[in-house]
Every structure is written in structure tokens, then in C-alpha cells.
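Worked problem 6 (solution included).
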Amino acid sequence: MTGLESTLRGIVRSAAPIVIAGQGELLTERSGVINLALDGTIMLSAMVAHATVRETDSLLLAVLAAMAVGALVAFIVVFSSIALRLNQVAVGFVLTLLAADVAIFVGKPHFNQTGKAVPYRPIPVLEDIPLLGPVLFDHNALIYFSLILTVLVWFFIYRTRPGLTLRSIGEQPEAAFVRRARVQALRYFYTIAGGALVGLAGATFSLSVKLGWKEDLSGEGWIALAIVIFGLWMPWRVALGAYLIVGLRSVAMDLQGTIDLPSQVFNMLPWFLMIVTLMIATSGVLEKVDRYMPAALKPTMRRFLRAAPPRALGTRFEKH
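Solution. The predicted structure is:
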């Protein structure tokens, strides 16, 4: 395996949990609900997955337990919004702090303890393809799932009738209700489903990427939230954002050994570049650049660059 193949393979593996969490939050936000509890959910689900596999020696139970934790936290967010009429942002922020503290407190017996990892299963024939084989087809089931998930979410949202309904309840819930869509029930479903994926992301960390339970997962959920915005609520761009941020981290680590600067500078580099990208994407600069684009490229570039969150995002739907 060449140095380039090893680097790209590492990026695909390290970005897998962020891709999964980002796609889960994308489904949630497309339904009109904001789940800000991602960071704490990832920490708690990672701890639960690690603890479960140590106690039961079952990877399947560990993954299911982590997904159940993510689904439970997401349920609290959507229930608080719909049934209790509480602010989604406030509830999510409090939950992320609570979940992180619970993970640290309950996970003390499992801190830095060895655990079972998901075994790697290279795909025969495909693993021998030059460059693509080692990068994409030499992983475990969780990494493969992260690669497939983006395609599945894109197909579901843009090529199926339920996906059209999902977009409608996030854009115009009143119109969707008139067309007999069960807006509240669907928001429950997609928020809980998205939360389960966030829980799976936590399990991917502790069972595949950062083996074991460690407290250094803090911040990964905020990255997942940021790349949903960076990705303009589009599955492909969310995945691209995850690979980009992990790639920038890799570059920062390489530069750290060659340039004499404080390590904090390199740790801030990916965040700085993402903030600049978000500012450019939402400031109107791209619309000005659009004027100078060749006419043949304008339709494609406009679809790729438009920044428009679901119009009903973060709002409550009231039946009249």
C-alpha cells in the first residue's frame, strides 16, 4: 500500500462516524427539527457501545444499544418540541451537556479499557483495484455502511415519494398536512431515525475508529452539525464536508511535524477553514461569482452552491 493509499484509506475510515452522524442530522433537519444534542449523544453512545461489548462480547448488541441511546435522546428533543412546546435549540443544548456528563460519569469503569473491535472484511476482487481497492474496499461493516449511507439518503430524499413528503414537511408543513401527510408523526419518526444514526456514529467511534471509550470525542458532534450547514442540507455535500474536515486534520498533523508553530495553531486550522467556507457559502459572494460563470455551467453550479435551509426548520407545526 502506497503512502497516498494509506492516507486516503485513513480519511475514509476516520470520517465514517461524522458521515453517519451528518446524514442522520440531515434527515432530522429535513423534517423541520433541529437536534443540537449530537455531541453528547455521540459521547454517550460510544461509551454504551464499548461498555456493552465488554460485558456481553456481542458487537451486534453493542451497536443496537448505541442506536437505542441515540434514538432516546432524539425522542426527548422532538417530544419536548411537539408535546411540551419547548424550544428545540435550548432542549438540545441542555441534552448534549447532560449526555456528555453522564457518559463521563458512568463510563469511568470502562475508561481506557480494551474492548472488541468490528473485524475488517476486505471485499474480494474489489480490494485488488488499483488505488480504489485499498481506499474503499478494505474496511469493516461500519465503514462500508458509511459509504453506502450517502447514496441511500440521496436516493430516498430525491427519488422516492416518502422522500418528497419528508422535504415537504420541512419546507411547507401546512401544505403537506393539506395533502394528508401526518406532519407530527413523521417528525417524530425522522428525528428518532436520525438520532439512531447518530448513536451508530458513536458506536463506530468506539468499535472501529477510536477503539475503546475515551473522553476526547467531545467536539465531533458539533462538526457533524456544522457539515450539515456546510453541505447545504444535501447528502453528497454533507459527506464531502466530512471527508474534507478529516482530510484537513490529517494535513494539519503532517504540517505539525515540519513547521515550528504551536500545536494549537494546527488544531484550529480545519475549524478556521470551515468557518471561512460557511461565511462564503452564506454571504452572497457565490451569487456574484455566478455572474462570471459560463452559461452552460450556471444551472449545475447554482444547484451545487445554493444555500437554503428547510424553511420550517426549528418551527412548530400547529393544526388549524
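Discussion: The longest helix spans residues 3-30.
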